[in-house]
Amino acid sequence: MIPYGAHDISELDIEGVVDVLKSGLLTQGDKVPAFEQALQNYTNASYAVAVNSGTSALHIACLALGVENGDIVWTTPNTFVASANCARYCGADVDFVDIDPATRQICIESLKHKLLVAKEFNKLPKVLVVVHFAGHMCNMKAIAELVNQFGVKLIEDAAHALGASYLGQYKGGCPAYSDITVLSFHPVKSITTAEGGAALTNNKALAHLLRLFASHGITKDSQNFVSNSVAAAHYEQQVLGFNYRLSDVHAALGIMQLKRLDKFVEKRAALAARYDEELKDLPITLPQFDPFSAWHLYVIELNHHDRDACFEALRAKGLGVNIHYIPVHWHPYYQQLGFTKGQFPHSERYYLNAITLPLFPALTADNQQYVINALREVLRD
Ligand SMILES: *Cc1c(COP(=O)(O)O)cnc(C)c1O
User: Which residues constitute the catalytic centre (predicted)?
Assistant: First the structure.
């Protein structure tokens, strides 16, 4: 089976991990700060807080922005459930903004309209979570200018976008326009730490809060202690935080992987260009051309074939095709909260025709040709 995504581990990556296991601390050592520094250097964000998953990073991002019971958080239906769940962890209500079918990302016109209506009914969200779907950057400048007028804070779910460039200045989200940018290092993403994630920000106070929430709400910096009575102690718990720390074993893998990230993205872009060329005559909609994408996913939309039948036929030919994404509001958990099918028609129509083709740095030319041939055969039948 050719999977839709896969990690790429080198001998040097393995050596980096083994070095930590042989010497040094397994957690709370110097590898996590070194990984955070490397992430800052690469992405051009002022602060990076590494954590044990992208989902944890989304959770602490919401907490740092003060999301709580009674608040509202918006995202798009065309994403992984974690983009919405983070708000639910904080007791907030979730709502969605439909996608633009051309970009498959949040539709800025719909966003504008929904903000105006929400303002009138005093139902503005505290935070909007935008998703750089498939590794293509959203128009962050336009989105930030719009939501700033309404006092809405901005989280970028950049789980797909590490390595995508924006304004020629940023290479994993755009912390200049968002409050917090979230990354994931799950094995199918741009780089991996097995499980892992990070929150990036250019705001010092937010960086402090992110760190606090990721480690029990505890600070060890006596200059930040709020209580006199424990001034002699080593640490002080100030808020209710979690243990979301990344280990040094995982960070060591991240440090080695990050060195190869530009090569990974180049490889993904070359594979995407080959799909563009080889599939352009088929009755399918290809992803939009984007020279700055991190190319996390290559999603085609069938124009007049039965998606489920094609999906099964491709699976039967040994392709690990996938579907990104079941609209979040279609999941039973969200249906039970009151969402119904038909509410976000662009996300739903897109989903019903979408198939994700294999795309990862180690995909060989032969295997890609096999994918292309298999797709041609299935669409011909
Ligand atoms: C992978 C992913 C996440 C969650 O990341 P984990 O590291 O798996 O917790 C969040 N949002 C999106 C869009 C993702 O693809």
Answer: 189
Cα of 185 vs centre of ligand 1, distance in Å, is 8
Rounded mean pLDDT of 232-242? 89
The closest-lying atom of ligand 1 relative to the alpha carbon of residue 185 is 7
Q: Whose CA is nearest to atom 10 of ligand 1?
A: 82
Q: Please state the atom number of ligand 1 nearest to the C-alpha of residue 57.
A: 9
Exactly one of 31, 114, 189, 267 is catalytic; which is it? 189
CA of 197 to the centre of ligand 1 (A): 8
Whether 159 is in the pocket of ligand 1, judged by its Cβ within 6 Å, is yes
- The best mutation among 58, 157, 180 to test binding of ligand 1, ranked by most ligand atoms within 8 Å of the C-beta, falls on 157
Residue 153: active-site member: no
Beta strand ranges found along 290-377 (DSSP E): 298-302, 319-320, 354-357
- In contact, 309 and 331? CB cutoff 8 Å: no
Q: What's the CA-to-centroid distance between 53 and ligand 1, angstroms?
A: 8
Compute the distance between CA of residue 355 and CA of residue 274 in angstroms, rounded to an integer: 17
Helix (H) or strand (E) holding 243: none
For residue 24, name the pLDDT band (cuts at 50, 70, 90): confident
To the nearest 10 degrees (0 to 180), the angle between helices 54-64 and 82-89 is: 40
Give DSSP secondary structure letters for 170-192: BSSS-TTTSSEEEEE--TTSSS-
For residue 80 and ligand 1, the question of a CB distance below 6 A is answered with yes
Domains 2-258 and 261-380 share a fold: no
Name the H helices within 201-247.
204-214
What does the mean pLDDT of the chain come to? 96
Looking at residues 291-296, what average pLDDT do you find? 97
CA-based R_g, the chain, Å: 21
Using 50, 70 and 90 to split pLDDT, how confident is the model at 231?
low
C-alpha triplet 157, 59, 231: angle, nearest 5°: 130
Centroid of chain to Cα 265: 16
The first and second tokens of residue 53, run together, are 């998953």
- Tokens 């990344």 belong to 246
Which CATH architecture does the domain made up of 261-380 adopt? Alpha-Beta Complex (3.90)
Report the topology of domain 2-258. Answer: Aspartate Aminotransferase; domain 2 (3.40.640)
DSSP 200: E
> What's the pTM value of the predicted model, to 2 decimals?
0.97
